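Batch job 17 of 40 flagged for manual review because the log was empty.
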Amino acid sequence: MSAAVVEQVVQARLIVSTHRSALLRVTLRYRADDPLAVRMGFPAEYSLDVEPEPPAASQPPEVEWVFARQLLAAGLDQPTGDGDVHVRPALGQRAMVELRAPEGVALLQFDAPDLRRFLWRSHLVVAEGEEFSLLDADRALAELLG
């Protein structure tokens, strides 16, 4: 039996400077078999890496960031994050997501209602507070030890 997956494509604005930005498509994903995490997939051409890997024949390339669903939810109401991912509300029903990597920092602006809709759909799959009851500790340990 496969786990439920929520996937939603949204538009984001990559802030390049105070006067320059670029629109890009971001795929938001939530998987019931990884109930604490959300995923943001970005087109590989926006990667901070110098040379992205060549695309597979069947799929366009994508760079994926994985972080806590709770961080995304909390960041829509107040600045949140103390690691590689920071989320904060912004003016006009917007939300800012800052992604930090050794190669640099990416600042993205989203429509907050898009992110709230995605979170709402994820909560239909796994209710808030029920995440730990779905964790498979043996599988997680096996993945960690590789």
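Reviewer: the log was empty due to a logging misconfiguration, but the result itself is present. The first helix runs from residue 69 to 75. Unflagging and moving on to job 18.
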